Amino acid sequence: MKLRFWGVRGSFAMCGREVLRYGGNTTSIELVAASGTRLLIDLGTGATELAKLLMQGEFGRGQGELPILLSHTHLDHIQGLPFFTPFFVKGNRIRIVGADPPGLSLQATLQNQLAPHYSPLNGLENLAAGVSIDTIVPGSTFTLGEFEVETALVPHGNMWTTAFRVTADGKVVTFLSDVEYPEPEAPLPEALHLARHADLLIHDAMHSDDDYQLRRGWGHSPARAAISVAEKAAVRRLALFHHSPDATDAMIDETVWRARAETKIELFAAAEGSYLEV
Amino acid sequence: MKITFWGVRGSYPVPGAATVRYGGQTSCVEIRTESGGCLIVDAGTGLRALGQKLSREGGVPRQFHVLLSHVHWDHIQGLPFFEPAYIPGNRIAVYALLTAADELDQVIGGITRHEFFPMPLERVPAQFQFIEVKPTVAMDIEDFHVLPIALNHPYGAVGYRVDADGTSVAYVADTAPFHEVLHKQHFLCGLEPLSHEDLAALAAMRAGLVAALRGVDTVVYDTHFLPEEYKRFPHYGHSTPDQALEICAEAGVRTLVLYHHAPSHSDDQMDEVAERYRQLGKAQGIEVVTSQEGMTLMVGAQEPR
Ligand SMILES: [Zn+2]
Ligand SMILES: [Zn+2]
Ligand SMILES: [Zn+2]
């Protein structure tokens, strides 16, 4: 399985020279199985960059097929939806798969994102590709093409996020972003279960340890929470993810050095760029 | 008066190496008088950096005024990231056109409901106030005399002419031109035939805009598309620099500022656009400036820039 980070930034798309190496686009991750089939996680602004690549191939001809997992509907995870050009080509088959936000349906939430006052698209029904929205119950396991997906609900401030364990080609990627445990060094059992022996764990590490003291309860993790999950679940590699918009490239480098000094787990900070072999 | 550009991009923010010079953040400008009066126009993602600067200026509690052209995402997305909203005692007045069925606080506050954002607007420490604007009905806001102008954009938008310090600046975004599409309250998937009433409405809107811009020193205009792009998407609600030049020439404007750049336009492409339209403007006696994030322009300056 190959993986490419198209957006690694949390909360807000950050522009400028200080963030060029890690990238400023918000959350979007592409997984590609050995056979070439794809799975996308989240539709942050990073998805608009992937869209350009997809449109050069079968999606440009209306013959593309793509399942998209949504972790939750905070803006930085759906911001790219109205600008994801494969939606505008008739014939493409795109499925959005995610849990209902508290007290609402996923369908109604995305419909509201495209409401006439917010967007000239004026509703999901005007996306030429015809989008199907499948609501899942977190905790369930299902298959999307060649990808086997195990899910769990994890706390995210006043919301919940769906975390994913994706298996393909005998490799495992676990996505645990936008999560805050009651204690950073005591991750919840459902998170550990999802991350068990993963080849790659992608974990929320939005805050530096100092920063975290000021942001407790806001729904994000410090790097040491990510390390704690990685160690307890005995993962092979850890990607620190969902970087703060205020974190410059130099600051992220420093977070990585400090984190490496704290653990034997192989780790790196997720960066927009080329395909990685899982 | 001076105007500073905090976000010049249209549609959505575009980080990356290809946009570092012109900037990737969406619509937001700051207008300042000589005595320090401050008006913010549009609350796109550029508002975040402006909010950080305003916080550093201090002076708590403060009253802020934010004029919105309309409530498409690229013009309001910065609001939840506006630092002064998190400072108790601050007051933030938001001015907007009532375009959809809901109330303004429902629509604008709606982007901070729990499914979209962790902190709802009605719970932030600062006090928000929402004020409906009506085209042609002028408002006096601190030192500024503000005239809202009807524009041609899906579900409506307004531009603003702002007079202060004996000079004037206008903000004209987002708008389509006025010859082949009339945006109303429904979805357009392409050009629709225009009735006599539609043509009359377009002519009236165009005349209203030209009249409002008459003699304005500096006009910031939605020039999202290049002419060849506009031909493919005439129903998207945006203009070209040529269409902006035509309006500005008729209104006798001194300086036209190209604004709301398409996300696909790279810095190198924007350099070409800037040079081409600088020349075209010069031939018509209009100074054409291409906006860049972080740029400040003096309004009403006597010397050529
Ligand atoms: Zn997030
Ligand atoms: Zn716009
Ligand atoms: Zn718009």
Under CATH, the homologous superfamily of chain A reads: Ribonuclease Z/Hydroxyacylglutathione hydrolase-like
What would CATH call the class of chain B? Alpha Beta
The unreliable regions of chain B are none
Query: Which CATH class of chain A applies here?
Result: Alpha Beta
Terminal Cα separation of chain A, in Å? 6 Å
Strand order of the largest sheet of chain B: 6-5-4-3-2-1-14
The percent of residues in helical segments of chain A reads: 10-25%
**Could you state the order of secondary-structure elements of chain B as H and E?**
EEEHEHEHEEEEEHEHHEHEE
Report the span from N to C terminus of chain B. 15 Å
Mean pLDDT of chain B: 95
At CATH level 2, the architecture of chain A is 4-Layer Sandwich
Strand tally of chain A is: 14
> Would you give the CATH topology of chain A?
Metallo-beta-lactamase, Chain A
Number of helices of chain A: 6
CATH topology of chain B: Metallo-beta-lactamase, Chain A
- CATH second-level architecture of chain B: 4-Layer Sandwich
pLDDT < 50 runs, ≥5 residues of chain A: none
Oligomer: heterodimer
SSE pattern of chain A, N- to C-terminal: EEEHEEHEEEEEHEHHEHEE
Strand content of chain A: 25-35%
Query: Shape of chain B, please?
Result: globular
